[in-house]
Design goal:
heterodimer; A: alpha/beta; 2-enoyl-CoA Hydratase, Chain A, domain 1; Rossmann fold; N-(1-d-carboxylethyl)-l-norvaline Dehydrogenase, domain 2; 3 domains; eight-stranded mixed beta sheet; seven-stranded mixed beta sheet; 50% helix; B: alpha+beta; two-stranded antiparallel sheet; 14 helices
């Protein structure tokens, strides 16, 4: 065996049988990611292999437990602020593509052994090899998830994947950003083989020695994309029409990445030479790296989410706890309680029910078993797991680390049932329960939580710490969230839950528009076109109109007169009562109430939908600003919660990033115009007017 | 400017575009070739005098592609000196071909031309030519492309036209078409298409359903609802956010039928007509094509009509009979309302809802149909008009001489 040839991110040795072994191992990273050095080293090693007369071919592998995670997202986030020219961005984006093309055309067969998850650039690297064998571990993921973070495959993925498996299947995987298991990859034709851990290397090596074909199918004369691509095939035309409409309507024209990927797939696959096709892809990719959407999505959905999940900012000197048992003070059972009990059970945390009414625990248990049966039936969990979860629910335990308070009971009453724990978590900060609880428990042990936010499928939890909440209490609540595999965020001294304030501001703006005479369909379509999952009126119906009224901070407002009219006068309380701004049919369909127009006549001239969108996006952004300027939460947490819990569209990166992407001064201009026309709710605070560098994020 | 005159018009009957349709075994070049043979034989033409054959076709690909105007000349044994070409403006191709053939005469660069159109929808299905406007993700995304049927339902929704309105219109279209056939109004222009060994294949429009009742149409399911649910309704609502939903009011019964067919018009200068002893039947007064919103796609007829009127220096009231292709019933109802005309003076012998719409041929067919009717009624002027894919409209005004 020859001596290892040193590259910074990979090593190259040639075994006695002539098979070169290229091992990628990016230093100081837990997983291999595509750094500029790796781009360069990959080109270097391709040249080395080509010219090394002792090497007949190569096996490429990873020196880490996973294969490769993909692009270096931290670096990509920073690109936006560099304000690169189109040419600079293109040149930077083309380096890895060129390295991979050099490897692919080096004239010697290259087999890749995929020993673990290969995503994004990792899978693209594999696609540029002539033979792919993957470890047959169903936990391994292979995929191109770039579009979910505002990017697209930029190292040949949009060209090689359709040339391997056809446009239809490739577009499906790329546009959804979906990943597949090794077996699915084999069935789809993305890899040629799967192998056990013992046989993985030998399978790759044997292929190099015995079959090694150094030419990709798309470099052979007469190659055509499987399933066709020419628009003269009505089937392909219809497929592209459908895909285009799917992309347009699933992104509402807000997310540039999926359509960029689809353009590259279509345009590139119609080209005879993959070299030209790769340039088409690089152009589209480089354009995305210059835009704000990729920056925003990566920063919030990946970096900020990751930081919060790993409890960044938690005081390090406070010892971590592992919660064994949680007590819940309850007087009636809701679906949130059921979901919470199951969530705890899933992580092995025991839930004890404390109540004066002894029927409550058995009712909870019964509802839990119904819900578990449902989840078992649809394959979400295994039966054994369900049984174990059920065994974690008890009626009153003698001790618990956290007491969650959802109903009134004095300390003495609680003490009779349970040893009072160190942390008292109070649900629903707006219920007034916290004031009540403070009479009995020590302030520093009390923290506000929303049980709903534990179980709303967002995986992001909002915690409200008061100025008296001790650091220990906060740290231990963070630990508890982590234990439940949730992402905790913190609000300090917040009078109300941030997500609730955002949603309330959003739907009140919708109600105000209705009162002004904006067409209800335009309000609702404006909301969804801006990227919210529900229009403001549909959201109000879901929350229930009496609840909307209760949540309002200003009770005498245009929006509240609309609520009173519908709810108090017309008895249309929302979706739960089957009538609100919408009418609900028995088949589950809904349409805007036909008499809404009689009550709120439409103006002759209707605003442009972009005005509706701006109003809805801006009002929530201003709500977020009010939380930031009062020091209630960080920019990162405000962005996270607005996207994950308040329905703010993710292409913005969150309500704060929305402002930063257009620049604070432009946002203020926009608000001034809106406030002149539509009211003082769009006034900007002095704090916002004073932001340096024209942005809120200062780092 | 030289005047362009219409000397003659012929068309094939329209065959159902089905595997068992009467014209399915006939290729596009045969359909169009027989039209050219008819024009030659009916007028005793010396084809060496024909200076261009402009052929319209909606899907100019495969056996229907590659300058089928020239191919049809060769098939029909025209003089080898007679050139032919092919144009596409989707649904108005046949009319546009006539306009271009007329323009060559008006410009003084030709004395005798043929404008014609052909579509074998059974052999080359609609959509066969693909195309950037509908299927290239770069463009289709930008222009918010939706399939034409969704556009039809969209314009019905936007204009508050109900399913009942459409079905009532369509029943009348069927009644008029059947009546016209019974009375022989189409006899002058329709010829019998023959097969390879000279046996007759079809002499009458095959798609027509005599005796269609309102109740029959009311039973039909909406044609585009499922397609709309696949993201296309949502796309339409993104473009027109003031709408809550798209009402899927079009059915197979109030939309045009898929058929095979061809038609042609012999055009020339007065001088050439005199020389050959051909009697001019009408003069082409003006023509115009316009572009309109590509998502709505079907709103071109009104601006095209207004522009052609302006070019001719005429008013709406100067037109005796309107002929607007019945691509979808809503297209005609919107046009009637925008132009403030009643059903009495438009599509008086029915249209594509009853007889079918062979895309590239229709424009050339309806021009001839309305010319025959002008003569039968002894009226003078007609405006022929079609809505067009990708958001366009084409109109032509003719006047009897």
């Amino acid at each position: 065996m020859s001596d290892a040839v040193g590259f910074e991110t990979l090593s190259y040795t040639v075994a006695d049988n002539g098979v070169a072994i290229i091992t990628i191992d990016v230093k100081d990273r837990s997983m291999n990611v595509l750094t500029p050095t790796l781009h360069k080293d990959m080109a270097g090693v391709a040249g080395r292999l080509k010219n090394d007369t002792s090497a007949i071919g190569a096996v490429l592998r990873s020196g880490k437990p996973t294969f490769m995670a993909g692009g270096d997202l931290k670096r990509i986030v920073g690109l936006y602020d560099q304000k690169r020219s189109a040419e600079e961005a293109y040149l930077q984006s083309s380096t890895f593509t060129e390295s991979l093309r050099a490897l692919e055309t080096c004239g010697k067969p290259v087999a890749v052994m995929i020993n673990g998850t290969a995503l994004g650039g990792g899978l693209e690297l594999a696609l540029a090899c002539h033979y792919r064998v993957v470890l047959n571990d169903p936990k391994i993921k292979l995929g191109l998830p770039e579009t979910t973070l505002g990017l697209m495959p930029g190292a040949g993925g949009t060209q090689r994947l359709p040339r391997l498996i056809g446009l239809k299947k490739a577009a499906d995987l790329i546009l959804r950003g979906a990943s597949v298991s090794p077996q699915q990859a084999l069935d789809l034709g993305i890899v040629q083989a799967t192998a056990s851990r013992e046989e993985l290397f030998s399978t790759a090596e044997n292929w190099v020695i015995n079959q090694g074909n150094a030419q990709q199918p798309w470099d052979k004369r007469g190659f055509s994309v499987p399933g066709g691509i020419a628009l003269t095939s009505p089937k392909v035309s219809r497929l592209l029409q459908q895909l285009t409409a799917d992309v347009a309507t699933s992104t509402n024209y807000n997310y540039p990445a999926p359509i960029a990927a689809l353009r590259a797939i279509f345009k590139g696959c119609n080209m005879g030479s993959i070299d030209g096709a790769l340039k088409v892809e690089t152009r589209e990719f480089s354009r995305l790296t210059r835009g704000s959407v990729a920056r925003n999505m990566i920063r919030t959905l990946f970096l900020s989410k990751g930081a919060a999940s790993s409890l960044l900012g938690r005081p390090v000197d406070i010892k971590k706890i592992k919660v064994a048992s949680v007590a819940v003070l309850l007087d009636k059972v809701t679906q949130d309680d059921v979901d919470f009990a199951i969530l705890c059970g899933l992580s092995g945390v025991t839930v004890s029910i404390i109540c004066s009414d002894l029927s409550v625990p058995s009712e909870l248990l019964e509802q839990v078993s119904v819900e578990l049966a449902r989840r078992v039936a649809c394959g979400a969990i295994f039966e054994a797991k369900a049984a174990s979860i059920q065994s974690h629910i008890r009626q009153s335990n003698s001790s618990a680390e956290i007491l969650i308070i959802k109903s009134r009971m004095t300390k003495q009453e609680v003490s009779k049932l349970i040893e009072v724990p160190a942390i008292i978590a109070v649900c629903d900060p707006s219920s007034g329960l916290d004031t009540y609880v403070r009479q009995f428990f020590s302030d520093d042990a009390i923290i506000g939580v929303s049980l709903a936010s534990f179980v709303d499928n967002s995986n992001v939890v909002e915690l409200i710490a008061s100025s008296n909440t001790s650091m220990t209490t906060l740290a231990h609540c963070l630990d508890f969230a982590e234990q439940l595999r949730l992402t905790p965020t913190v609000q300090h001294n917040s009078p109300r839950l941030f997500s609730q304030s955002c949603r309330q501001a959003y739907l009140e703006e919708g109600l105000r528009m209705l009162k002004e005479g904006v067409s209800p369909a335009l309000i609702e379509n404006g909301g969804t076109a801006a990227g919210f999952s529900l229009g403001p009126l549909a959201l109000a119906d879901n929350v229930s109109l009496p609840m909307v009224q209760a949540m309002a901070t200003v009770k005498e407002s245009d929006s509240m007169t609309v609520i009173s009219r519908l709810s108090r006068d017309l008895k249309r309380h929302g979706k739960a009562c089957g009538a609100g701004f919408y009418e609900y049919a028995e088949d589950g369909s809904q349409r805007l109430w036909s008499k809404l127009n009689d009550n709120y006549p439409k103006n002759e001239t209707q605003p442009d939908v972009n005005i509706v969108k701006k109003r809805l996006l801006s009002i929530q952004a201003l709500t977020a600003v009010s939380f930031i300027e009062n020091g209630i939460m960080t920019n990162e947490h405000a962005d996270l919660v607005s996207v994950f819990c308040a329905g703010y569209p993710s292409y913005t990166g969150g309500a704060i990033s929305y402002i930063d992407s257009m620049g604070v001064s432009e946002f203020i201009n926009q608000c001034n115009l809106l406030s002149d026309k539509f009211g003082l709710q769009f006034s900007c605070s002095d704090w916002l007017l004073d932001r340096p560098k024209n942005r809120i994020y200062q780092n | 400017m030289t005047g362009a005159y219409i000397f003659d018009h012929v068309r094939t009957p329209r065959g159902k575009a089905r595997a068992n349709g009467a014209l399915h075994s006939v290729t596009s070049v045969e359909l169009l070739g027989q039209v050219l043979q008819q024009l030659r034989d009916r007028n005793g033409l010396d084809t060496s005098l024909v200076e261009d054959v402009v052929a319209g076709c909606g899907s100019p690909v495969g056996e229907q592609g590659s300058a089928i105007g020239r191919a049809a000349c060769l098939y029909a044994d025209y003089s080898i000196t007679c050139p032919g070409q092919q144009i596409s403006r989707f649904c108005s191709s046949g009319l546009e071909a006539i306009n271009i053939a007329a323009a060559k005469v008006m410009a003084g660069q030709c004395d005798l031309t043929i404008g014609c159109g052909v579509e074998s929808m059974s052999r080359i299905p609609i959509g066969s030519s693909g195309g950037a406007w509908s299927s290239d993700p770069s463009l289709a995304y930008k222009i918010q492309y939706i399939p034409q049927g969704i556009s039809a339902d969209l314009i019905a929704t936007r204009n508050g036209i109900s399913r009942v309105d459409l079905d009532l219109y369509s029943v009348e279209s069927q009644r008029r078409a059947s009546h016209a056939w019974e009375q022989g109004y189409f006899d002058r222009s329709v010829f019998t298409v023959i097969d390879d060994i000279g046996m007759p294949l079809l002499s009458r429009d095959e798609y027509i359903r005599a005796g269609t009742r309102f109740e029959d149409l009311a039973k039909l399911p909406s044609a585009f609802e499922a397609m709309g649910a696949n993201a296309f309704d949502a796309q339409a609502l993104l473009k027109f956010p003031e709408l809550e939903r798209i009402a899927h009011v079009h059915t197979a019964g109030n939309s045009s039928g898929l058929v095979d067919g061809a038609a042609g018009v012999l055009i020339g200068s007065k001088k050439m007509g005199d020389a050959l002893g051909l009697k001019p039947r009408a003069k082409i007064r003006s023509f115009a094509s316009i572009g309109s919103d590509p998502t709505e796609m079907l709103t071109g007829p009104t601006p095209a009509a207004l522009l052609s009127l302006k070019k001719a220096g005429m008013n709406r009231s100067d037109i005796d009979l309107f002929e607007l292709n019945e691509a979808f019933a809503a297209v005609v109802l919107v046009f009637m309302s925008e132009m403030n005309i009643t059903h009495d003076c438009i599509n008086v012998n029915g249209g594509a809802i009853a007889m079918g719409h062979p895309i590239g041929a229709t424009g050339a067919m309806i021009l001839g149909t309305v010319l025959d009717e002008l003569e039968r009624r002894d009226k003078s002027t007609s405006l022929i008009n079609l809505c067009v894919g990708a958001g366009m409209g084409t109109a032509t005004i003719i006047e009897r001489v």
